[in-house]
């Protein structure tokens, strides 16, 4: 039941006109910036200008589109986008030999497919403090420890959801999406909350893959 609810939510969020239903040129820009950020260093304005020109965007239009969707450092360089971050967040994410982090647990399950690379993940269960470790590749979850680990997913009404800024994404989704060492622990954490689905990591990957497939299709 939880998986079906999450799947339907993502389908509606990413459909044409949905809040995550990016236009092809927008998806291409986001994907190129994301893959450049995954090299592990902040992205400066001249770097964004070069990507924009290469993709046929006027640089100022690209900056205006990216600004609300990106996490920034004190120098206004981009340090976070689409869940991947060079800042400290609760979910450690290793790829390209670089230690980064993600805004929420679900990000660790779909980012490898967007990046086309395998990632090693470590997160802390918010109730017990127990570490949850995963290896996630572009085609699925390869390893989970402990094997009983699960992920919580925030279920929102796509018709009443605004995710037009980093802060809105954090408030709407990220603060509710965690790894737990067991289903029992997750159930205790989500007690009496109808807006939370508890999924296995494989189910979480499939939900994320639905989002990623739509995004990659749009990016061409």
Helical region count? Answer: 8
First-last Cα distance? 32 Å
Rg to the nearest angstrom? 17 Å
- Report the order of strands and helices: HHHHEEEEEHEEEEHEHEH
Main sheet, how many strands, which sense, barrel? 8 strands, antiparallel
Identify the CATH class: Alpha Beta
Overall average pLDDT: 93
In spatial order, strands of the major sheet run 1-2-3-5-4-6-7-8
Would you give an account of this structure?
With 220 residues, this protein is an alpha+beta fold. The protein has a single domain, classed as Beta-Lactamase. Helices cover 40% and strands 22% of the residues. It contains 8 helices and 11 strands. It has helices spanning 2-14, 24-37, 45-54, 59-66, 105-115, 166-172, 183-189, 201-219; strands spanning 70-72, 78-81, 84-85, 91-95, 98-102, 119-124, 131-137, 140-145, 150-154, 179-180, 196-199. The chain has an 8-stranded antiparallel sheet with strand order 1-2-3-5-4-6-7-8, with helices on one face. The protein has a 3-stranded antiparallel sheet with strand order 10-9-11. Strand 7 and strand 8 form a beta hairpin. It is globular, with a radius of gyration of 17 Å. It starts with a helix and ends with a helix. The model has no long low-confidence stretch (mean pLDDT 93).
């Amino acid at each position: 039941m939880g998986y079906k609810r999450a799947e339907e939510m993502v389908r509606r969020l990413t459909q044409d006109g949905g809040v995550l239903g990016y236009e092809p040129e927008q998806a291409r820009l986001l994907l190129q910036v994301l893959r450049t950020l995954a090299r592990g260093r902040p992205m400066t304005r001249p770097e964004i200008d070069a990507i924009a020109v290469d993709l046929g965007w006027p640089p100022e239009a690209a900056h205006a589109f990216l600004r609300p969707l990106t996490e920034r450092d004190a120098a206004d360089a981009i340090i976070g986008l689409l869940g991947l971050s060079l800042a400290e967040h609760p979910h450690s994410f290793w790829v390209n030999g670089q230690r980064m982090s993600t805004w929420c647990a679900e990000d660790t399950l779909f980012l490898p497919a967007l990046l086309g690379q395998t990632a090693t993940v470590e997160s802390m269960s918010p109730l017990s403090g127990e570490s949850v470790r995963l290896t996630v590749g572009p085609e699925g979850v390869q390893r989970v420890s402990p094997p009983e680990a699960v992920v919580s997913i925030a279920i929102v009404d796509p018709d009443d959801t605004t995710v037009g800024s980093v802060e809105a994404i954090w408030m709407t989704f990220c603060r509710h999406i965690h790894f737990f060492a067991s289903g029992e622990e997750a159930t205790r954490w989500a007690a009496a909350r109808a807006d939370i689905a508890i999924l296995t990591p494989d189910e979480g990957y499939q939900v994320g893959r639905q989002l990623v497939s739509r995004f990659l299709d749009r990016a061409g």
